[in-house]
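Mods, move this if it's the wrong board.
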Amino acid sequence: QISVVEGQLKASNARLAEVRTAAEVATERYKLARILLQERTDAAKAAGDRAAAAQKLADLASDKLGQFAAATYRQGGNLGQLEAFLSSKGPQDVLDRAAGIQLISDIRNRIMQDADASSVVAGVLRRQAAQAHAQQLAAAQGAEIARAAAQAQVDLAQSETARIATQQTAMIAQLASLRSTSVTLERQRQSGLKAAAE
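Not the wrong board. Structure tokens:
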């Protein structure tokens, strides 16, 4: 009978260790999920900030292009190289006007290229921000699932601990009776055996 009760006591100690370990593992998973969520939240914020900054640059480039077009329109437009020839006062004047037209054309092309490039960069960064936000939402969902699982394991560990403690109290009392000793002495003996095993 003593061997049977001691076997039951060992089995209950093993079960207690098992549920406590499962609760600790679930809690660690939750902590890792929270760390991942924080990382994803930081990444989403950074990506959003980069996308907003790129959009501001794209808006500025677009405004600059609009201002250039409006200024050209207010000045009556130009007929390009034909105007340089029609209103010239000589060959040097033609060369000066042609150089001026080329310079303005180069500036217009550069402004258009800047506007296009800024718009493309802003689009890429907006997509990256959307992807980072989706990853943040997935991490939040994962953290919530891990939290619920950890809470369930902790609740199970608490209920199992209470149940096992009640059983062990009865088993120790039974062992004390079988060995004709006190419950206190048997509890000390079991604590010593447990410590030696650990």
